[in-house]
Amino acid sequence: MMFTEEKVLASLSENEKRVYNYIKTKAENDANKTLKESMRKISGQLGISEATVHRAVQKLRSNGVIQIVPSREKTESNEIVFYGFPAPEEQVGDIFKMVGSLNSGIQRFETILNNVTKENERLLKENEELNELVGQLKAELNKAPAAQAGIDTTKIIQTQPLKDGTIAYIVKK
């Protein structure tokens, strides 16, 4: 949720306001409105604790004033993108853009979910067919020793393996 500059500044302590002003000044001097400094460096520049800088950054981020973009390298500092406080009309426009992006994302997600669901249904059906085929092949395999023993396999109704390793065949006359 975006607030006015006065409300956000009122929620900050004096040292947190110094952090805000430092980030704002440095970011506005950059073409991309970004700042790539560690919280330790900012605290050193301002002569305040790193915890205060961290608290200020978290408050500014939660109020939508800045965004933290994690660096890809551990040796680099995270990037702070300064958004500032747009006019209420811009905020409404930004919200509509975000809603449009969210709707687009939801539609993409639903399409992916539907495709995955269809693929799962296809695989379940294929699995059932394969299990049925395995059952048929096991039945044929159980009849194989009977055929070798000279029993007509077309007359076998059921086979039953016995504890001693032999197989009993139930045949019709």
TrEMBL record:
- List the coiled-coil residues: 106-143
Its lineage reads: Bacteria, Bacillati, Bacillota, Bacilli, Bacillales
This protein is called: Winged helix-turn-helix transcriptional regulator
* One Pfam match: HTH_24
- Keyword entries, A-Z: Coiled coil
Which InterPro entries would you find in this protein's record? Homeodomain-like_sf, WH-like_DNA-bd_sf
Name the SUPFAM superfamilies on file.
Homeodomain-like
